[in-house]
Each structure stands twice: as structure tokens, then as C-alpha cells.
Amino acid sequence: MFIVIGLVGLVALLVVGHFLGSLNVLLPLMLGSLCFLPKVLIGGTVADQTRASISGAEPRVMTYTVAICIVVLVASFLHRKGTLWTTYSAFTIFLLIWVSLVWAGNGEQWAGVVHLGVATLAWVAGSYISTHVASSGKSEQILAGWLFIAVFVQVAISVAQVAGIPLFPLGASAAADTGLLGRVNGSFGHPTTLGKILLLLTVLLLPLTKSSDPRARKLAWWAICLSAIPFILSGGRANFFAVIIMVVIWAMTSEGAQHAGRRVMIPLAAIGVVAASAGVWLGRFETGEIGGYRARFTDVALAQIEMRPWWVGTGPGTYVTAVGPYDALTATGWPVHNSVLLAVVELGFLGAILLFLPILILMVRAWRTRRSLHANGWYSRAILASFPGISIVALTGWGMMADTLPLWLFVLGFCEEQIRRSTARNDIGRPASFSPRITRLRAAP
């Protein structure tokens, strides 16, 4: 039954996409599931309500699981050049071999494998959608428009929450944390998730501020400016300062002497935002977690790494279950607040390297093309500008390995295709139809 429904839905999507254009179908599908309602459809358990893990206690289907799989199916059906299929092939093979032969292969570990597998497919989905976006035509305007809507929806929800309207209450485990009182969470279960989502969307918005389309530029700048509201109201220190660092680096590395004024004004504006919200951040530093706990979590994680062979790990999604017997505080539901250490403990050094290596390779590629005056240069500088801030977020929390991971890899896959594309291809308009026949006709010289 599910296969029949899936096939019918795929055909309907192809038909609708033919008339509305691929971007107007795929972008809201992805952004809606990743940036608005990343909810469980199938496989949720009661334990998941208070569980602190990158995945559920059992394999589950999320809204973004369906969206990502649909985009990947469309990509496999249409065979568009530029879709990055093999980036995470080695990591996928690693997961399947390890869960079958090395780890116990229980439901908890399979849930982690499914979560990580779907995240790697998000890279494919991002690269496929990126093939429909070019520096000519209206594709950048469409992209900027949907990104603006995604940001505006979170701004509206955040303002409503401040006004006392009970929209999207905190998750069960987050609601028990008194340190989260007074902080907005948008449509997500935790305030810091809201900041991480907006941080990643900013990576896509910054290159659009260089677009030749004036409407795309305006929408991108408006979205970036409006996002400051939920960044401040959510109270995520690492997220807020990460986006400030990103925007300042972007402004300082903008090409051309004619942008000298903007190079000065944007950093000054960023300083002004920090100063205007200083009361919020002083309060957060007074009431937030003390560094001793984070140091303790780090020590516990390092001890676990020393206990096991470097290539084994505890299995994805099992940190609290595996480490809890060795530390009472971890047993209460506190993973190590470091996404890299969390990956090393759960996947072993080999798995962690295979997970993060494509990201590091993308950074190298971005560095090589950062001086280009075309779209590949814009996206290269956005990736490089985001690296310090995202590193801060990843090294001070474990959320980048949870439901934020699919969006992270989606954004990076999108950017890699833009960076990889040659300057000649960059200036060729892309067809906005799902139809293979029409694609071939329009692409002909």
C-alpha cells in the first residue's frame, strides 16, 4: 500500500512540477519539513519524549525523511547532471557493515543508522535542487523567496510566543529545564534548534545578496535582518555569535573596492545588534550552564574513547545508553556537548572521519574558488565565512548531530554543486521543469 501511495505521489509531483516549476515544488517540500515541521510520522515511542539522542529508540520516519526520499527519487528518475550521488557512499557502506558485523545491531543503533543515512541523502537532495538554480533567470528569486518565507514564519511564531500565544510548546525534556524559561523555540522542540536552523539558512542567503536579480537581493537581506529577532529571543549564545561572525567575515571578504563602505557598515551594524541585545546575553551568561559541567562531559567522553578500539564506537544514537553506566550525570540524559566528540564516541574514529571528511574537502574546494566573481565564488565565501561560527556551535553542543544534521548536509550539498559548477555553466539558465523531454529541448543550443 505504501509503495502504491508513494508511486502515485511521485507521479503527481512530476505533473505539478511540470506546470509550477521544480523549485516551486521541491523547495517548499524540503524547507517545510526541515525548517518548519521536522516531526515524527512513523516509529515514535514514549521513550523518545524524554530521550537525549541524535535519533529515536527505534527507527522512525520523519517528515523530512519523506521529503528527502521524494527529491532523491525524482533525481534518480530525471538523471540531472550535477547531482552528487557518491559523496557519502563510503560512509554509507561503513554504517551498513558496522551495524551488521561490529555493533549489536539493536533497534537503537538501527535508528541511528537510519538517521545518518537520511542525512547523507539530504546532501544528494541539496545538490539536485542546486542544479535548478542559476545566476540568470528567475531561479535565484524563487530561492530567495522561499528562504524569506521560511525565516518569516519563524519570526512570526517567535513574536507570537513572546506575546504569550501558546504555539508549538517545548518538548517534554526541554520543558523540564528551568533555564529555558522566557526563551522562544519557534516551531521546534528546543530554543537552540531554532537558532541552528536560521544559522544554516543564512549560509544560503548570503550568496543571494550578490545576485544580479534586485528582488532576490532584497529578499535575502530582509531575511537576514529579520532573523536577528528569533536569534535574540531564542537566547542561544553560540548560535547568535556564530551568525554575527559569519556575516562580518562575509562583509569583510566581499570583492571589489566599491564595497568598501559596506565592509565597514555591516560590521558596525553587527556590533550595534550585539550592543542592543547585551541585556539578553548578560542574563544568559548568568543563568546558563556553568563550564564545569561541559568539562565533565568532555572528560567522560574522552575516557570512553580510550576504553574502546579506535575503529569501533558504541553505535549511532547510543551515547547515553552506553556511557550512562559509567557516569551518573550522563545517565540522567546529558550527552557530551560536542558534536565531534559525540560522533567519535558513537562511530569510532573511522566513522567520524568518513562523516566529516566530505565537509573538510568542501572547505578546501571553497578556498580554491573563493576569489571567483561568479556564483561559485559567492557560495565559496559563504561556506568559508560560516565555518568558524558553525564550528563553535558544533564544538559546544550535540544538536548538530540530531535533527539539524539533515539540513546541514542539505545546505552543504547545495553549495557544493554551486561551487563545483564551472563559470561557463554558471551563466547558463537552468530549465525549471521536471519533464525530461522538455529539459532536453530547452538545454539544446
- Major β-sheet, in short? 2 strands, antiparallel
Distance between the termini: 44 Å
Give me the secondary-structure category.
mainly alpha
Radius of gyration: 21 Å
What ranges have pLDDT less than 50 throughout 5 or more consecutive residues? 423-445
User: How do the strands of the widest beta sheet line up side by side?
Assistant: 1-2
The helix tally amounts to: 21
Number of extended strands: 2
Helix content: 55-70%
How does this structure look, described?
- This protein is an all-alpha fold.
- Helix content is 67%, strand content 1%.
- It has 21 helices and 2 strands.
- It has helices spanning 2-20, 23-35, 63-78, 89-102, 107-130, 139-162, 172-175, 191-208, 214-226, 228-234, 237-252, 260-276, 278-287, 291-307, 319-323, 328-331, 339-368, 375-395, 405-420, 423-426, 436-443, and strands at 40-42, 61-62.
- It has a two-stranded antiparallel ribbon.
Key features?
445 residues, mainly alpha, two-stranded antiparallel sheet, 21 helices, 67% helix
Describe the protein's topology.
Layout: H1 2-20, H2 23-35, E1 40-42, E2 61-62, H3 63-78, H4 89-102, H5 107-130, H6 139-162, H7 172-175, H8 191-208, H9 214-226, H10 228-234, H11 237-252, H12 260-276, H13 278-287, H14 291-307, H15 319-323, H16 328-331, H17 339-368, H18 375-395, H19 405-420, H20 423-426, H21 436-443
Antiparallel strand pairs: 1-2
Helix pairs in contact: 1-2, 2-3, 2-6, 3-5, 4-5, 5-19, 6-8, 6-9, 6-10, 8-9, 8-11, 8-18, 8-19, 11-12, 11-18, 14-17, 17-18, 17-19, 18-19
